[in-house]
Fold each of these.
Amino acid sequence: MTITQFTKVAASSLLLLGSIAVSHADDVSRGLEIAKEADKRDTGFVDSTAKMKMILKNKQGQTNSREVKVITLEVEGDGDKSLSIFNTPKDIKGTASLTYSHALNPDEQWLYLPALKRVKRISSKNKSGPFMGSEFAYEDISSQEVDKYTYKYIRDEKLNGTECFVIERYPAYKHSGYTRQVAWINKQEYRAEKVVFYDRKNTLLKTLTYAGYQQYLNKFWRADEMLMVNHQTGKSTTLSWNNYQFKTGLTDKDFNRNSLKRAK
């Protein structure tokens, strides 16, 4: 190869690499913009209460269920606060979980165990652990703030007849149980339709699907059902939601550690 030929090949390679870099940057920017728009459309609900039935299914198809009350407080400039109170079955009645979600710092989470009459703090390094024996991890139940991830737009795709953006999101928190998540975001409403989770080895772990979306206050979309399937264990958890209410007057006082012990 002559010097001239070598120079031409090198120049072509640099142009190709430059084009790939620009394309990647565009995909990253677009992924972030999709995430920001989704967050923007769910901002302003102030607070909410809802009832939830949690159905646990093992690999053999056997099930057991729990009834839970969930209250949430929107926090301006940070992640939401949420409190989950278990009402059934009898052996865990009164158990309560409190979460302070954060955008840039590790989430803070506590669990009240009535049998021991004490509040246990969940380690910030153990967010991948199962929440109350379900297929939802502790990090799954905190609010999904934009700054918790970096993003990349992958493609447009139809999911069950619905036009979606497909984006990848990469947890910024080093102790996350996931290397990445692939999310299908409804193009019209900017709500999640499906999320696929990959574990720390970048192996397929779980799939979360949403169904029965309903709109509240002419703005906020909430799914009636969320199904989390663990592909590695064969187990699944279904969350069935009802009786949503918004702007009920909740305050910070309803979300402190003392509220765990008196929660009903």
Amino acid sequence: MKPLAFLAGLAVSAVAFASQAQALPDTSKRIVLLVDEYKAIRNFPVILADRLGYLNDGALVTVMNIRDDIPTAQMLMDGRVDAVMAYYHHNIVNRAEGRNFEAIVALGLTPGAKVLVAHHARDKYKSAADLKGARIIAGGAGSSKTTLANALVMAGGLRIGDYTRIANESKDKIAAALKDGSADLVVAPTPDGSYYEAQGVATVFADLTTIEGTRKALGSLLPTSTIYMASERVKSNPAIAQHLANAFVRTLKFIDTHTPEEILAVIPTEVSGKDRAAYLQALKEEIPMFKSDGRMPPADAAREWQVLCEFNPKFKSMKVDETYDNSFVDEALKRYR
């Protein structure tokens, strides 16, 4: 990973960056962070944490992309990686299967997505309470998209068996299904929702990119992006958890105090792609997802657990308050608030 870089056109003062400049990291304190799709827009905070020097402030953090050939949970359990950046529901699923993982930083508090309704169905489906019988394109059975769809249906007073989930496919196939009437709604992460709107096949049913929109649609927030570790690793190496909490609390503060244009200036072209304008538009939609100080909100974590329990009763046996630990963020906030 690259240390702090002074990027051309960076819209943050040189004085601010000078105060953040750090000595070379201590290679004896190596931390391996596994990320679910490093270049995905939902993971832009890890790019910032790296480029601003926060990750390597006092330790050497190696960021890895998730590998398809080795399960993430296995790599965390056997110590090949120290922490994972992925969605919160993985902690609930893994704990129910006997793998004790816990989120040490809550980065995303909304799904960072929109639910769109096909034009042919918009008069029929106007609110979550109307979704009985709806055909919704989501992800796999335990995916974040399906969790979102389930939460939306339950917010309308229905059960998850009251709608039909359609498997996720390519954007072109999804657009075709919305257009020809074989699907009614789609769960669309940023920036896919804008694509379906531009194709003229659907309009926004629920905007779950912002805190306000998520509360309005679901009645609560839906924690998503987190940094999580194996509980035993947290206990045996609390310094790792504290280092990562410090880095990402600082990153969240940077996101909250800088414009999208200033944030884009930190992100290299190899991540954003050559179309910086398109990336900026997606960034503007995704930034509200990270309106967080890093703490996991207990009531919203419990609500997400309830949604998952409706999907699979085996989750009822676990204690939701064991799936996260706010103590490291609390300590970081004393220093970086």
Amino acid sequence: MATADDRRSGRRPLPCAFLPMSPSPSLAGALGVPLFTTDLYIPRYRDGDVGRWRIMHGGFALDHGYHSGVWAVQGMPALLRRPAPDAAWETWMSLSPHEVESQELGCRHARGRTAVMGLGMGWIALNLVQHPAVSHVTVIERDPEVIDLFSRSGATDGLPASVLTKLEIVEADALTWRPAQPVDFLYADIWLKIAEPSTLDDVRRMQANVQARQLYFWGQELVLHAQVQPLLAAGERLTMPVLQRCLVEKIALPLLVPEGLDYADYIERVVANRQARGLPTA
């Protein structure tokens, strides 16, 4: 039942609603499409909205991965935003195969005291607090409605208190926030679209304030691919030495370059995947 405070603020209570990420094997099998699976943590959300923001679940769908092919999904949770009271809802983010794959390196390689720029659905933060190499997670989110929606969504239900004590959410602007303590790892995702034109400048502003020992941002691979092109001869493939030169000469940020991964090849696969789908790469 809605409280008086709910009615005054325009908030709706969030009824419990969750559908599994994967459709039935028979349906996916009939289409010849694999079920999407991940070992990363996918929270269970309640449907509902707070102000301009809404969490809801979709039906059966096909989606491309960031560096992989087509996957079948069902009941995919998504965060929607309404720009104006009379405007249509638009998807801000979803836990789609593309979204998960395009952020997984940040999830897997964070360490120590970690700062996350942008709360969104909170799934990055909830993966990080469960990472044994991460000691503390500070999430910076400027929109109080997003924070309220996350707190009411049930995303943290079932997680142990020992994990949740590592999580801190701060209402502040990611472009101006300065930490009170040194930050080991910075993860940034404050943009509606991947690799927006302002992304690298925004990351530089954040890093100037945070001074993290290492950082990773959403769409990093596409930004690096665009930045490295002037260093490549015609038809030359990206290699790790060329990538390292780009990081020193053009980027000058302590970006994550995952150990044990041919990151240059990974970037090429991400770009080739987008090109095959007719999507922009810069």
